[in-house]
Each structure stands twice: as C-alpha cells, then as structure tokens.
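Troubleshooting log. The previous structure file for this entry was overwritten by mistake, so regenerating from the original sequence record. Sequence copied from the archived sheet and checked twice against the printout by T.R.
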Amino acid sequence: MNITKEIIKNLLIESLIAKFEYKISKANINIEKAKEWFFAHIEILSKFLHEYYNTKNILEIWLFKDFHKLFYPSNFKILVSRTWVLYENLPWEWRKHEYNPQIKTKKFTKYPENIENDFIKIIDDYNSLTNKKETDVLKLFFDFLNIHPFWDSNLNIISIIIDLELLKYWFISLNILKIRFKDRQFMYFFEDYYRKNIEKESVLDEVLSMIRDFNNWTLSNEIMEAKNKQEIYSTNKLL
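Regenerated output below.
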C-alpha cells in the first residue's frame, strides 16, 4: 500500500489520542492549548514518517532513533535510577541501565552494551523476509520489546512502526497503543502469554488472533477469564 501522509496522520491520532486524553485528565492545563500542541506534534511526526516511508523500502535503525527523538522536547534529559546508580539519557540514546523483564526469555537483552548488535540482528532478520505475514510483523513487536532499547516510550515507538508495516503490506493495524489505555490488563496478558509460550510454534498466530478478537469485541470467555486474572506490573518490575 502507498502510505500517504493522511493515512499516517490518522494512524498517529488513533494511536496517541488515548494517551493524550489520559495525560490531560491528570494535569492542570488549558485543554484547548493542549489540543493545539498535540495536533502540532502529530504534524511533525507525520511529516517525518511520511518522508521515510516514501523513500525507504526497508527498516533501518536510524528510523527508530530519530522517531524516538521526536517524541521529546529538544535538549530533554531523563535521569533513571537503578540499584542506587543514576543514569542520564537523552532521547534517541540507548538505555544505559540493565533491563530485567518480569518474565525472562532466552532472547531478552539485559545489558545496554548488547543493544545495538541485537537490534541490528532483528532488523536484518525482518528485512530479509519476503512475502511478509502478519505474524512476521508481530514478531518484530515482541523482538523489539525484548531488547527494550530506549529508557522510555518503547511501546509507543514499536506499536506505531508495526502498524505502519501492517498497512504497508495490506493488513489491518493492531492499535496496541489504544489497547494499552483501553484495557492494560489485556495488553499485559497477551505479552505474558507470548513470553511464557515463546517456544510454541503457533504462539504468534494465537496472540494475533487474541488481539484481533479484542479489537472486534469477540474475545472468548476463556480468554476473558484468563485476562481478568492478569497481574499489572509496576514500572519497577518491568524495568
């Protein structure tokens, strides 16, 4: 599919509006001014992604880094504290602290010095695939989260990229960012299900089916019951 700027803009609004609404509900700010900032930011992100997708046929690491940078104000810095050590990060920089997911798989990237090589590997593997399937794109989502390259906004970045990749190959977007704010418990459920069953050949098909059913309001009672028992991890547990 030819991904137009309008398609990208609509995708970004659908993906980020729930987060925007959640943020302004927690802040004492002028709503009209906040909307103005939001749509101005959407315009910047749309322009960047449109230029990329109209000049590149493959994914490249700089796409992720530059996209991450655009999510934050210029000269923005974050201080991350882990085990009594303070790490300073800029947008687009790889995280400098260790990553310890709640459910560990054989393929997660714990140490920051391994991020670049692991990231190159998953991007090269993805780009080498011909006739990409929906499950190939979904695997990229999980591979990215297992690396967790940035200190923050990993889910924002990869959710939008995989939706663009799905549209590019004529599939329907998954809207995982929307799921995050609509039913975070379900998001943790399918992520944990994947990690717990990563060796299972059909796991990607199963998770894809769950997400599609959720978006279509057709989740089975069995999945609903399992989802309702899902623990929602704190940030400290996740990182």
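The two ends are 36 Å apart (CA to CA). Archived copy saved in two places this time.
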